[in-house]
Design brief:
The chain has 92 residues and is mainly alpha-helical. The protein has one domain.
Length: 92
Amino acid sequence: MVVDERLSAAVLTYVGYDGLSAIPGHHPERIVDVELRARTETILAVVEQRAPGSQGLTKWGRELRAEIHAEHPELNDGAVAALVALLCFQWR
């Protein structure tokens, strides 16, 4: 699958992994394009249903990265890293 750079950029912006936030979070107001925001929120809704097991956040983060890459090949490495950072931050 071809990487969707527009969607990947939206994920980075939404999560605040674009250098504009000190910590990862939810910033829907930063995505002006309604369709792009909806696509981003759909991905986040699915990804955020995951919870770490007993393996610890570091190992879970590595596993999560592989899972998200497999499920969302349209996202570039930066967008996947943003999603992993958000989830690890939320579960810390």
